[in-house]
């Protein structure tokens, strides 16, 4: 999870380090070990309310169910998918694979 990026160059450093795993050493990146997660994109209404409303009203709006997001682009593992909520969970031993020695 990227907590804060102060400059675009910081984001570029993170993106360039993804392939080697070095992005985990960047101070603004935290590794969260989870068994499951759900990501919900913000719609325009929530973005406006969270930036202009008080803390109480923005937290109430963030707990409401997600609506389908208009526009945007989302890819998962290189595959283009319709923008909207995404969830996944770890399934131990859910796959068997063979390797050649």
Largest sheet: 2 strands, antiparallel
Which residues form runs of ≥5 with pLDDT under 50? 51-66
Question: Can you give the helix content as a percent range?
Answer: 25-40%
Number of domains: 2
Number of helices: 3
Q: Please report the total strand number as a whole number.
A: 4
Structural class, from secondary structure content?
alpha+beta
What is the molecular shape?
extended
Average the pLDDT over all residues and give the rounded result.
Answer: 75
Q: Report the β-strand fraction as a percent range.
A: 5-15%
Order of helices and strands: HEHHEEE
The largest beta-sheet arranges its strands as: 1-4
Radius of gyration: 18 Å
Distance from N terminus to C terminus (CA atoms, Å) equals: 36 Å
Oligomer: single chain
């Amino acid at each position: 999870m990227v907590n804060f990026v102060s400059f675009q160059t910081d984001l570029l450093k993170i993106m360039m380090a993804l392939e080697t795993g070095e992005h985990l050493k960047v101070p603004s990146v935290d590794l969260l070990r989870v068994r499951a997660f759900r990501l919900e994109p913000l719609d325009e209404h929530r973005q406006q309310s969270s930036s202009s409303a008080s803390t109480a009203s923005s937290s109430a709006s963030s707990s409401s169910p997600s609506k389908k997001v208009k526009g945007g682009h989302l890819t998962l593992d290189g595959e283009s998918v319709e923008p909207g909520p995404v969830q996944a969970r770890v399934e131990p031993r859910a796959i068997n694979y063979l390797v050649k020695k």
